[in-house]
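Subject: complex prediction, re-run

Hi both,

The earlier run crashed halfway through, so I resubmitted it with identical inputs.
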Amino acid sequence: NAGVTQTPKFQVLKTGQSMTLQCAQDMNHEYMSWYRQDPGMGLRLIHYSVGAGITDQGEVPNGYNVSRSTTEDFPLRLLSAAPSQTSVYFCASSSTTGAGGANVLTFGAGSRLTVL
Amino acid sequence: AQSVTQLGSHVSVSEGALVLLRCNYSSSVPPYLFWYVQYPNQGLQLLLKYTSAATLVKGINGFEAEFKKSETSFHLTKPSAHMSDAAEYFCAVSMDTGRRALTFGSGTRLQVQP
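This time it finished cleanly. Structure:
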């Protein structure tokens, strides 16, 4: 089925370890983004990309890196994990046709990360 | 800056009762407004969206929302709750900017009692 695929679904890290959360979409969407979900805080934008080779920061970018070498993939890297990065991470994509603010995001199923 | 406030982190209704989930927004320009639903251990999926075409917006699964500019509200309603409606609901606002980012409310968890 077409959609957004995130891996892994679950991950436990120790403080200081690094890892990459993978995100892939097969809908040819130009726009991709990463959100984190924390209890009582809704979802907050970490980084986003409007096309291959173009990335920018969102609301909470510190501690995370991204790159966009292809249209399909948008990995999120944690260089040195901290307990404050314990969260559920969602990747989302949309097309960029029409009015930008009205485009509907398609979300992946999420990646639950625990940092000890 | 834009923001979204969802009143009530938990709402409990009986099966067959009216569902009302409240959302108020602040935005310096006319916004785009969305309601998303999240079922346990799943990603978010769109219920409905407002893009200025009509103030009453109908979505999936019998939900609808009314945009009221004077009250800066976009409350979600459903006339008769079903057990399958139990989930977390998020209101979100977006402006037509290059970031295409959504600002989400903190969410409302809906419980449906038999």
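Chain B has a mean pLDDT of 90.

- K.
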